[in-house]
Amino acid sequence: MSSLAFTLPDGTRRTVTVTRLLNAGYAGRSQDDVAAHVAELAELGVPAPSTTPALYPVAPYLAQQTGSVPAQHGRTSGEAEWALVVDDTGDLLLTAACDHTDRELEAYGVAWSKNAGPDVLAGQAWRLDDVADRVDSLTLRAWVTGEDGTEELIQDSTAAELLTPHHWAEVLRERGELEPGTVLISGTVPMRHGVDQFAGRWRVQLADPSTGNEISLGYDVVRMPEPIG
């Protein structure tokens, strides 16, 4: 398990002791587009899921609020996402997240790759009820910083591209899992072609254009020493 803390716009703090962490996959609103994406990944050797959208259980301790992510090699990268959090009071929160994924391991199994890196969450959150009427207009963006120190936009979309938090809340309710301690990561939006995802730093922003409010996170990807033996 891990313990997370979030600051709401009014300054109040909410906590969650994570007992269940789930990563949605292939969770685009258009399942026709998802099918095309599955076919593209298959050509790269990534096994197709048995059903879409998919839902992958992840070890709860991998839900982290951190500024540094260790990586065993140079082919790991983040994914801009939102996270649905059931806090310790049972309230539903929405925040920014970045699913850091091992791309080498992904070719052997997506579920394995999801358990090889953390889901990094921001330190701010909104009550889902407070943004429920405008979820689709929320923007989801990510930037990467390469070796030359230049930050480059790699993902730029809206939450309308993804299945909604309310959709996943209902899925969790049907599974008996919409309870304190559950965190669900949304799945991601397309990356821009030509931008190197294997960068040394990731930054993710979830923003509300109607209010100007935003939630952001950032972390460095730190290569681990080579193993001995």
From TrEMBL:
InterPro entries: DUF2848, Fumarylacetoacetase_C_sf. Pfam families: DUF2848. It comes from the Bacteria. This is DUF2848 domain-containing protein. It comes from Streptomyces daqingensis.
